[in-house]
Amino acid sequence: MTTDRHDPNLRKIHESGPLKGQQFDYLVLSDEERAKGFVRPVRSSYIHLKCGGATYMGTKLAETYARDPHFYGGTMCVHCGTHFRLRDEHGEPAFLWEDGEPVGSDAEEALEYLNDLAAKQAVKEAGGGI
């Protein structure tokens, strides 16, 4: 982990072995910034909607998401072995926290997503079909 946005290891990817596809280093907020408190829950695992696989992350990464949900524009799927943007080509979430909220969303965005999902489900159950 590094707090240096210019660290060259942020652009290096492991080509083989158990870390294949992962960066050599990941950018995180400083200890001081994370100590200011969190605006979202600290969650350490998420699901890639494309493959259904769960990815687990370390504490500093999880706390960075919790302090600043918009800090990252993408994340790693360990099952696919590569990084993806947090939103797919249609603007839909590509990853969900295991509680069902989109990775990288603030509280308002998460609520909007969950309300839209519930509305679509209600239409489907009422026979409107999607």
Short description:
This protein has 130 residues and is of the alpha+beta class. It has 3 helices and 5 strands.
Structure description:
The chain is of the alpha+beta class and 130 residues long. It has a domain of 86 residues. Helix content is 25%, strand content 14%. It has three helices and five strands; from the N terminus they run H-E-E-H-E-E-E-H. Strand 3 and strand 4 form a beta hairpin. The radius of gyration is 16 Å and the shape is globular. The termini are far apart.
Q: Write the H/E string, N to C.
A: HEEHEEEH
The biggest beta sheet is recorded as:
3 strands, antiparallel
**What is the mean pLDDT?**
94
Strand content: 5-15%
List unreliable stretches of 5+ residues.
none
Sheet with the most strands: spatial strand order: 2-1-5
> Looking at the structure, what is the overall shape?
globular
Radius of gyration: 16 Å
Distance between the termini: 43 Å
Helical fraction equals: 10-25%
